[in-house]
Amino acid sequence: MRGDGPALATDAINAAIAHAHARGGGEIVLPAGRHLSFSIRLLSGVTLRLEEGCVLEAADPTIHGGTYDAAEPNPHDLWQDFGHSHWRNSLIWGEDLEDVAILGPGRIDGAGLTREGPGSRWSRQAGEFPLSMAGLSAEAMAELSPAVEAIAGRGNKAIALKRVKRARIDGLTIFRGGHFAVLASGCEDLVLRDLVVDTNRDGLDIDACRDVLVSGCRVNTPNDDAIVLKSSLALGELIPTERVVIEHCEVSGFDLGTMLDGTFGRTQLLSPDQDRVTGRIKLGTESNGGFRDVTIRDCRFTRSRGLALEVVDGGTMENIVAERLRLHEVTTAPIFLRVGDRRRGPEGTPIGAMRNIALRDIEAFDILPDYAATIAGLPESPIRNVTLSNIRLSYSGGGSAEWAERRPGDLPEAYPEPSMFGPSPVHGLWARHVDGLKIENLALETTTPDGRPARLFENVREAP
Fold first, then answer.
1. How far is CA 205 from CA 179, 209, 246, 329, 402, in A?
2. Looking at the structure, do residues 313 and 274 belong to the same domain, yes or no?
3. Residue 285 lies in a domain
């Protein structure tokens, strides 16, 4: 298959995939050159390989005389935003498949994708957006969360997989991936390895999946999360995200495109939510099905928000290990554990729970002073059994002594971000509503004086 620039390759690629599938499977190779395409439909048993020098470019409906596959109807789209609820409006998508792969070393360029999409249709809307966005105008909010009609025919994901068994995405580069560079929902035996992602919104989103390996990936996302696990209701049932390993990855919030070109730009200061740039590893926000047996190890965070573990929509998060992490230029709290009570879900959704969390061998340097490492449960659902061991947190200091007098409320319904509470009353570790906190070798320091104490514990039972 030849890469011939402005001619659309959509039909040729889809025909080749259908032919290989009909013969029992095979490999479709895109050679060096520019391949311009709308929606590519994966089929079972097929590998799509982008060779060195290949650029698979997402076509633009306003320029190239076509459209992406329509966002399929989803009767379960009430509880999460548009992007999580649809898969076919993507550059590459696959549904109810087995044994598929998308391989590099070529590049996907989502030039024609949009990063935007409507929010959820949930009527209560409590905690739908971070408190940091409260000052945005109606016009700005409409741009960030447009109506469904405004994105008809558009694609907003580079790769979307739904209920796929034994999938591998390996060795690719993804630039400008839309709302999601990769969205995997309800998948089993999923491997994401050695990906280089420099994108304008979310990087790798793994939702209601099990038996997942994310290894050796470099993900730069100044505007949203880099590697994020979720357990939404997009598939219409409670499915835990479980047995996941994230290892040897690097996440960051450099200016868009500057990880790829090696300049590592630092001009962008804020994400669209009006907090500082994102680029982190996170579990949540959608937590309906819960999380269990997740390991995050040997990862680096640079110019990004810290590690975030969040349960606000019901579900239980348990048996989580994060170890051997190194963070530098931390733009909010280096560690953020949160149980909230948004409960975006059907009537009867229970309050969530978090337990059995082990954080060890973590170093964080050059942390902005506003937000301390925070472990914040609720009186009715304290975070249980948290171990912090061999952790060093070095803040830049300069926090006001007046901040030490602050005692924010629990804000149970608010969208979970460290900034939700305002500047922390301590500079190091702030814990509230925790049942069983064990601390072994925790170093809290500032490089310049800070007017706040190092620690504050409220309604915390420390483990022996």
1. 10, 10, 12, 23, 39
2. no
3. no
Place of tokens 């048993």: 45
Say if CB 348 and CB 383 are below 8 A apart.
no
pLDDT tens-digit readout, 160-194: 999 999 999 999 999 999 999 999 999 999 999 99
CA distance 352 to 240: 13
User: Do residue 211 and residue 114 come from a single domain?
Assistant: yes
Contact 200, 253 (CB under 8 A): no
Tally of domains within the chain: 2
Q: Is 168 left (phi over 0), alpha (psi -120 to 50) or beta?
A: beta
> Got the DSSP string for 169-194?
EES-EEES-BTEEEEEES-EEEEEES
Beta strands 383-395 and 54-58, pairing class: unpaired
And the tokens for 188? 């089993």
CA distance 48 to 421: 46
Task: Say if 155 falls within a structural domain.
Answer: yes
Residue 391, domain member (yes or no): yes
Residues 244 and 351 in one domain: no
And the tokens for 443?
């170093």
* 141 Cα distance to chain centroid: 21
The pLDDT value recorded for residue 139 is 81
Residue 264: which domain range? 1-280
Range list of β-strands (E), 38-151: 40-41, 46-50, 54-58, 92-95, 98-103, 107-109
Q: Is 48 helix (H, G, I), strand (E, B) or coil?
A: strand
Q: How confident is the model at residue 118 (pLDDT cuts 50, 70, 90)?
A: confident
At 23, which CATH number? 2.160.20.10
The answer to whether 169 touches 191, Cβ cutoff 8 Å, is yes
Q: Sort residue 458 into left (φ over 0), alpha (ψ -120 to 50) or beta.
A: beta
Length, in residues, of the chain: 464
Nearest to residue 260, comparing CAs of 206, 312, 200? 200
Residues 47 and 165 in one domain: yes
179 and 316 within one domain: no
pLDDT of 128-154, one tens digit each? 999 999 888 888 887 788 888 888 889
**Which segments of 260-371 are extended strands (E)?**
281-283, 291-304, 307-311, 316-330, 335-339, 353-367
